[in-house]
Amino acid sequence: KKIIIINGPNLNLLGKREPQIYGNLSFNEFFETIKAKYPQVILEHFQSNIEGELIDKLHEVGFLYYGIILNAAAYTHTSVGIGDAVAAIETAVVEVHISNTFKREDFRHHSYVAPYAKGIIVGFGLQSYELALQSFLNPL
Ligand code: DQA
To answer: Where along the sequence does the record put site: Transition state stabilizer (predicted)?
Structure first.
């Protein structure tokens, strides 16, 4: 099973960026841990700060992979194009956010991805990604 984590803008700064909100761990440190913990799946990671690159990646994997874990970051709240890409592809997408976006500014309460996502996991820190992964591995 191939599952990819796709991270949007500014998530390359995890660990350095507003640590009171997003924590001290870099994504790569976290990613190594999670890969070791779930050897039964082929886990990949892609990050881009560029909207079109995120759309291209969704197209590339969206008819091939078993699952997509998508944190579109700020584009969640702005990008009709990313929402349309999620609607267009066949692979199930679980939307994740590190912070509880509903506890934050109003502009973070709307998601262009959510209507097309299989489900949404919000506010559990980096564990949000692990919970999304488990949702693909242990469907009830
Ligand atoms: C985020 C929440 C977004 O509102 C914000 O723009 C991000 C990160 C999160 O994971 O908590 O960059 O997606």
So the answer is: 17
Q: Does 3.30.1540.10 match the CATH number of domain 2-137?
A: no
119-123, Cβ contacts within 8 angstroms, sequence gap of 24 or more: 119/94, 119/95, 120/94, 120/95, 120/96, 121/94, 121/95, 121/96, 121/97, 122/96, 122/97, 123/97, 123/98, 123/99
Within 6 Å (CB) of ligand 1, which residues are found? 10, 71, 73-74, 76, 97-99, 101, 108
What residue segments make up the domains of the chain, in order of their start? 2-137
In angstroms, what is the span from residue 55 Cα to ligand 1's centroid?
18
User: pLDDT in tens for each of the 140 residues of the chain?
Assistant: 999 999 999 999 998 888 888 888 999 999 999 999 999 999 999 999 999 999 999 999 999 999 999 999 999 999 999 999 999 999 999 999 999 999 999 999 999 999 999 999 999 999 999 999 999 997 66
Whole-complex ipTM: 0.99
Q: Which residue, judged by its Cα, is nearest atom 12 of ligand 1?
A: 73
Nearest ligand 1 atom to alpha carbon 97: 10
